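Handout, page 2. Input:
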Amino acid sequence: MYYLNALLKNEVHPTEINLFIWDCFEEWNVLKVTDDTPNNARERVFWHLLHELKLGSGSLNDLDNDWNLKFEIEACMEFLQGQGRYPIHCVGWRPV
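Output:
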């Protein structure tokens, strides 16, 4: 969450988010999760958030003007931190 909080405060360059995403994929690969491994709402929101960050990476440079992406990031982060509701349009799929 450190990188995402810093991104929302314009304290980190958006290219750092791409590195964060790749680090997440590398860590995920180490876990050796299979299709049979159950998931939960937090995992779905996490993958949804990474997907939104990757798709919206062009807007990350101007996040203050992309209210939809900023709202989506904030909603996901609040849920992951136990402070919000499940995001409305969340479609989080884990990589296989």
